[in-house]
Every structure is written in C-alpha cells, then in structure tokens.
Design brief:
The chain is mostly helical. It is built from twelve helices and no strands. Helix 1 packs across helix 2, helix 1 packs across helix 3 and helix 11 crosses helix 12.
Length: about 220
C-alpha cells in the first residue's frame, strides 16, 4: 500500500509547526529535521527560518542528540556501528569523538565485549575472538583481560577445535591426503585457532575431544 502524499506547506507557520511536532516526539539531529522539512516544502527560506528558531530555543542540539544516542546504543552496538549511524545523521566526527569519551564507560564496553564473546566463543578460537572484539573497537587492555579470563574458565582450545573438526569432517583423513588435511587446516584457521592447536587436532581427528586435553 502506498503512503499518502504529504500536503505541501502553504506558509512558514505550517513548516515551523510540522518540524516542532517531530521534535516534540523525540530528539532529532539537525540533518534529520532538515530532511523532514524538505518533505513539507521546497521553500528554503522557510526551512532556514524554522531551523534558526529551533536552535534559538535549544530544540535542536547535535551535541545533545549525539550524547543521548550513544548512551542508548553503546551497550547494544559496537563503536563502529554507532559512529556510522551518527555520521548518516549528519553528526560531525569531532562531536562524535568528544561525546563518546564523555558518555561511554568501561562498564559499557565490557558488557558489549562479554556479549560478543558469548555469541562467538563456542565456534571461534582466541584469534577469531580477538578479531571480533577489535572490530567492535574494544580497548586492547580489556580484550586481553577478558580473553585471559576465558582461557582460565572455558574449555581448552584443543577440545573446542577438535569438537568442531569432528563435526565438520566425519570421515578420517589418510596420513598422505594432503588436500583434505589442508582443507581441515583452513577450516580451523578460519575459526581462529593457532597452528599449534590445529596440528594436534589434525593428528587426533575423530578422537574423543575429552581425551585430547592432556596431549601435547
């Protein structure tokens, strides 16, 4: 079903009240409001006048909007995702950087990092987990701390890697089958496991994972 066409404004007052209605519902960036007003009129003078009035009354403030957006999204999305969304809304890099420093605590970042680890740890080695956390722009000190804790508390990397290998390749690999062995190696590398772990798992493919932990 097609949406109804928005009736064009016939006066500055209609433009002003249209923007005010949107601002009364939730916080908007300057670009957001300009975009909405352009849907109502092609008269740039009316739009500029309305924007100036909103700014005088502090109804629009990109710094305030940026801070509120970061506070409401920092526990759910990565810094990269948030920055991208804010840039799409016309927020400058300088405002984003300052607001991020002002609004985001280490607790927020740790919560995000822990959620990412929980999401990926069962099918990823330490290298892959580190890459995921780095892409989310989690600080290095926090990555090291959380991955060290994971190594101490979670199942050993060899157990995890062999479990995945056995699930993926259900037929034993002959010692001279270089092609299949290379394929298995690439599979475990893609999951973020080290070569030292991969070597042991390839040599003990289809072994019970619970029995591999003591093997060097």
């Amino acid at each position: 079903m097609q949406s109804k066409l928005l009736p064009p404004a016939e006066s500055y007052d209609q433009v002003y009240r249209y923007g005010l209605w949107h601002l009364s519902r939730c916080e908007h960036s300057l670009l957001d409001i300009k975009t909405k007003l352009h849907r109502k009129t092609t008269n740039n003078t009316w739009i500029d006048q309305a924007i100036s009035r909103y700014q005088e009354l502090a109804y629009i403030d990109d710094t305030r909007f940026c801070g509120m957006y970061i506070r409401s999204h920092s526990r759910l999305h990565s810094q990269r995702q948030i920055r991208s969304k804010l840039q799409q809304k016309g927020i400058s890099a300088e405002i984003i950087e300052q607001s991020w420093q002002d609004e985001v605590s280490n607790d927020d970042l740790q919560e995000l990092a822990e959620r990412l680890i929980a999401k990926h740890e069962k099918k990823s080695g330490l290298n892959k987990l580190r890459q995921v956390l780095q892409q989310a722009q989690i600080p290095s000190f926090l990555i090291d701390e959380l991955l060290n804790e994971l190594c101490e508390s979670a199942e050993p990397q060899k157990v995890k890697a062999l479990t995945l290998l056995n699930q993926k390749f259900k037929t034993a690999c002959a010692a001279n089958d270089r092609k299949l062995r290379d394929k298995q190696t690439r599979f475990l590398l893609s999951k973020g496991f080290d070569f030292s772990v991969i070597r042991v798992c390839l040599d003990h493919h289809l072994m019970n994972p619970e029995e591999i932990d003591d093997i060097e």
